Amino acid sequence: MSKYIDIQARDQAGSFKGYLALPPEGKGPGIVLGQEIFGVNANMREVAQMYAEEGYVVLVPDLFWRLQPGIDLGYTPADFDKALSLYTALDLDKAVDDIAAAFDTLRDLAEVTEPALGFVGYCLGGKLAYLTATRTDVAVAVGYYGMGIEQYLDEADGLSGGLVLHHGELDGLCDATTRARIAEVLRGRPGVELYTYEGADHAFARLGSDHFHKPSALMAHGRTIGALKKYIGPAYNLSDLWDEHIHHEFVTRDVPATLKTMVAEPYVNHIPTLTGGVGSKQLGRFYQHHFVHANPEDTKMIPVSRTVGAYQVVDEFIMSFTHTCEMDYMLPGIAPTGKYVEVPMVAVVNFRGNKLYHEHIYWDQASVLVQIGLLDPEGLPVAGIETAKKLLDESLPSNTLMARWAKSEHL
Question: What is the mean pLDDT of residues 57-65?
Fold first, then answer.
């Protein structure tokens, strides 16, 4: 659910609009989302929806309202010129006051469950993240590629909550020299996290941007969610949520119940075979016809380790089965061989809020092919069931595939 609401300015200059996005549960911790120089445009509204899906009540205030209300620009050359003129004319002190007013509005909303609030800003909003952290009582502020922060480093002693700053290595608006100045003052202060992303430029997290850099955007988003959850929540038992998902996949084999544990548009990628699906329609088809009902009856998963983070679960396990049916997702096009298989696997499971967002599943396909008799390991640096056996028993011999291992014993 989303809508525009009114925000009352603290200086009594009037009221202005803010775009409000609610999480699927209808309530949660509150964050203010700081706009880029293009106003509360389609991109910022989409970002607001993303954070709402993470479990937050998100308010995006129109920070240009004192100059021209309702700015909603694209990214044409004319839009850039307009955006830069607005940015140049913006009173930053008033903008921070308006962010504080947005905090006031959030605290008055019944949908906001926690008194502690957060701020996340991009570009202009990235700069304002720092100023918000030094001038308001925000619990945590996160800034993406904010420029001009170095001009306000004398305010650093005003920091009281968490501060996370993301910059791209190639960002000419905050170059290496400038980042070094920022780090000299901020690094080591309690609650401060500074990140630079190799190969990334300004606007590396904006979908559709010429500078969009997905690996950096993913890393930065994970760190952002980690910081938000640390300071303002929400707290979910991701381990239990993951267990519920795999219960429906492998025990009840209930496709609708499996999909209910996921966001509206999830994706799954089995890395070795490029199988899975993107979006609920494709993934539902994959689960129904090629996965949930395509596992042999004796399929088992032996847990080895589980790491639970702020937004992600990483499972290490051994999957065992007898190849009695065609397994489209693991052995597409291969007729049943009747062979018994044990293979170590890793599942990297990402959540948005209390729903599963994506799965990246890894295993050693060569080991599987060796075990079903389709790959002769002779002369190749591959192994069969031994990979699973050694995972559970580290005393088994190491380096048996290395012909030169014996020669190094006395070196």
Answer: 98
Distance in angstroms (rounded) separating the CA atoms of residues 264 and 281: 10
- Pick from 210, 165, 201: nearest CA to 183: 165
Q: What is the reported pLDDT for 410?
A: 81
Share the mean pLDDT of the chain. 97
| CATH 3.30.1380.20 corresponds to the domain 1-230 | no
Indicate the domain borders of the chain: 1-230, 236-405
- The 8-class DSSP code of residue 152 comes to G
Pinpoint the alpha helices (H) of 21-73: 42-53
Tokens 């088994």 identify what position? Answer: 396
Residue 124 binned pLDDT confidence (cut-offs 50, 70, 90): very high
CATH number among 3.10.450.50, 2.30.30.240, 3.10.25.10, 3.40.50.300, domain 236-405: 3.10.450.50
Question: Helix, strand or coil for residue 37?
Answer: coil
- How far apart CA 351 and CA 311 sit, in angstroms, is 5
Query: How deeply is 387 buried, as exposed, middle or buried, from its count of CB atoms within 10 A (0-12, 13-18, 19+)?
Result: buried
pTM for the whole thing?
0.93
289 is an active site residue: no
255-307 residue pLDDT tens: 999 999 999 999 999 999 999 999 999 999 999 999 999 999 999 999 999 99
Q: In which residue are the tokens 């589980």 written?
A: 306
Nearest partner of 167 among 148, 141, 133, 144, judged by Cα:
144
Q: Return the bridge partners of 404, or none.
A: none
Tokens describing residue 64: 């240009």
Q: Determine which one of 166, 167, 202, 245 is catalytic.
A: 202
Read off the pLDDT of residues 35-46 as tens digits, 9 standing for 90 and up: 999 999 999 999
| Distant-in-sequence contacts of 314-317, Cβ < 8 A, 24+ apart | 314/346, 314/347, 314/348, 314/349, 315/242, 315/346, 315/347, 315/349, 316/344, 316/345, 316/346, 317/344, 317/345, 317/347
Residue 304's CB: how many other CB atoms inside 10 A? 15
CA-only gyration radius of the chain, Å: 25
Of the candidates 62, 98, 171, 201, the residue annotated as catalytic is 171
Query: Is 72 part of the annotated catalytic residue set?
Result: no
